[in-house]
C-alpha cells in the first residue's frame, strides 16, 4: 500500500511540476528517489514555510491506513450499530483525554475534534447506513466521508477542516476493526516527517525530539499543522508539491523560513551535518570562532527543559512563556523560582551564560490572567514589556523569581525584556531588574525604533539581543503570520540587515555584547554576514548549531565583513544571497 | 413553539471557539434548539458540523426555535450566548 501511495504522489508531483514550469528537475528527482531509496539527486522542492527553523534528517513518510476489508453481511444490526457507536465514543474519549494534557490552542483544537466525532448528524447518518445493511466499518467510512465532502465543497477555512473528518474516520475505523490507530511513525531515530497532510490529533502528539521537521504535500498557512508545528517549535512547510514522492530514508534539509526542502543534501552541502540535529553532541564542536580566531558565542534558544542539549555553550534566549500559557492565574514566585532554578542548574559550569527573557505575551499570545482586551492589531498592541504597564506586579514577581534562582545557580544569569521601544522603557526595566538584584540586564531589539536608538538604550543596559523575526515584521510592516508575504519577511532583506548593523555598531562603541536570537541566526549562510555586521553571539535551536559552527569556522573575520558589506549593498534579499554566495 | 431572533455578536461569527461554546451549551439544554438563518432550513444547535457549515458571520440575524418542556429557557440561554462576543471572552479558556 505505501508503494501504491508513493507512485500516485509521483504522478501528481510530475503533473504539478509541469504546471509550475521550470521545475522539470523536481519531478525527475522525486521520481528517482521514490524508485531508489536514498538517491542523491539534489533537488529543491518549494512550499510555504509555516514554522521557522531548519533541520536535516532522513525522511519517514506517514503510512496511509490499511484498506478496508470487503463489506460483510450484517446479521445483527443492533450489535453493529453499537460497535460503531462505541468506536466513535472511544475516539472522542481519547481525544478529550489528550486535550486535558494540553493547553491553549492545541487543547481547543482537540476538544473541538472530540465534539465533531460525537456530532449527532454523524451518529444519525452512521445509524442509517447500518440500518441499510452496511457493516460498522463501512458505515463509519461513508458517513465521515460524506461530511468531509460537504466541508470541502464549501471551500476556504472549512475545506481545511475536511482533513479532520478524514482523520477521525481513520481512527474510528481502526478502532472498530481492532487495528492500531494510524498516526506518526516511530522509527526509533530522529526524522523529517513527510505526509500528504497531518491531522491535529497527530501533530498534538508529535515528539519534538524525534520529529526534526515536517513537510506536507497539502495544507495551508492556517491549517492545524501550521499552528501546532509553530507551537511545538518544529520547522514546517506545507503545500510542498512532490514531497510525498521522496523515498523513506532520503536525507533532506528542511528550511521552514525559506519554505524549501532540499533532497539529497549529502552530496550537495558539505557545510551541513547530514543527519539529525539532536544527535550531535555540541561539546564535540568546541567553542566557535572564525578561521582567524575571532570568537563568536553560539547559544541555544530554549523554551523548556526539553530543549537543553549537553555541551551547549550557553543559552541566548530562554523563553519563559511555558510557565504562563493556559493559566487562569499567574504562577507564584515560588513556582517560577523552582522552574527557573531547574533550567539554570542544567548549565552547572560557572560562567556559562543563560539569557532569560521576561514574559513575552500580549494580544497576539493571549494569557487569560493578564486580562488584556482583544485588539484589532495585536502585533502593534500591548505585548511584551508593554503588558507591565497594565500588570506591573506580574513582571515584578517574575524578576524576583529570576533573581532568587540566579543567586542559587552557578551559571551567569542575564535578564532581558521583550518589545522595548524607547530608551525610557529600557531605563525603567533596567532599574526594576537591578532593584531585584539582577546584575546583567538587557533588552531585545525587535522594534525599528529601538535599533535606531540602540546607543541610547545601551546607556541603561548591559547587552542587546536582536529578535530578527519581529524586527523583520515591524521593519517591513508585514505580518509574520501571513504566508502570502514571505519575500518581505526574508531575513536577508537589506533594510533589516541595516538595522542589525546599527545595533551591532552601537554595541561595539559601548563595548557591550549584541547578539541575534531570531531565525536569521540559524541560517548558516547568513551567520557570517551577521558576524561581519558586528554581532557578537548567535542563538538558535540546537539543530542549527553544527551547520552555523561549520560556516563560521571556514571564514575569516575580514571575509565575514566583506560578505556583510555585499549583503547590505544588495537591492533585495535574493541579490544579497547571490552576491554573498558568489563571494 | 418558542422563537427568538438574535444578532450574532462574536467577531469570528459562529466559527471556531464561539461555535464550540454554542454546541456545548446546546447539549446542556433541556430542549432541542434549532437555528435558522434567513429562509435556509433550520439546523440542530447540538451539531458542531451543522453550525460550522452554516457559516454564520458576525452581525447576522439568526432565529432560534424550540418546542416542549424547557423550550423557553433553552432558547433564552442560547440567545444570550449568541449575542455575546465570545471571541473577546478568553477568561475561561
Number of domains of chain A: 3
Note the gap between the termini of chain B: 34 Å
Count up the helices of chain A: 23
Superfamily (CATH H level) name of the largest domain in chain A: Phosphoenolpyruvate-binding domains
Walkthrough of the structure:
- The complex is a heterodimer of chains A (583) and B (93).
- Chain A is of the alpha/beta class.
- Chain A folds into three domains: 2-64 and 184-268, Glucose Oxidase, domain 1, CATH 3.50.30; 77-177, Enzyme I, Chain A, domain 2, CATH 1.10.274; 287-581, Alpha-Beta Barrel (TIM Barrel), CATH 3.20.20.
- Chain A has helices at 2-20, 24-35, 77-100, 104-117, 120-131, 136-154, 156-177, 200-203, 224-232, 265-268, 282-285, 333-345, 387-390, 392-408, 423-435, 448-452, 454-458, 468-476, 494-510, 527-533, 545-553, 557-569, 573-581; strands at residues 43-46, 48-51, 54-61, 191-195, 211-216, 236-238, 251-255, 260-263, 297-302, 314-318, 353-357, 412-417, 440-445, 463-466, 514-516, 537-540.
- In chain A, α12 crosses α14.
- The longest helix of chain A has 24 residues, at 77-100.
- Chain A is globular.
- Chain B has a single domain (2-88), classed as Histidine-containing Protein, Chain: A (2-Layer Sandwich), CATH 3.30.1340.
- Helices cover 33% and strands 18% of the residues of chain B.
- Chain B has a four-stranded antiparallel β-sheet, with helices on one face.
- In chain B, a hairpin with a 6-residue loop joins β2 and β3.
- The radius of gyration of chain B is 12 Å and the shape is globular.
- The chains are: A alpha/beta (583), B alpha+beta (93).
- The A-B interface holds A 104, 108, 111-112, 115-116, 119-122, 147, 150-151, 154, 157-158, 161, 326, 328, 366, 368, 371, 373-374 and B 11, 15-17, 20, 23-24, 44, 46-50, 52-53, 55, 87-88, 90-93.
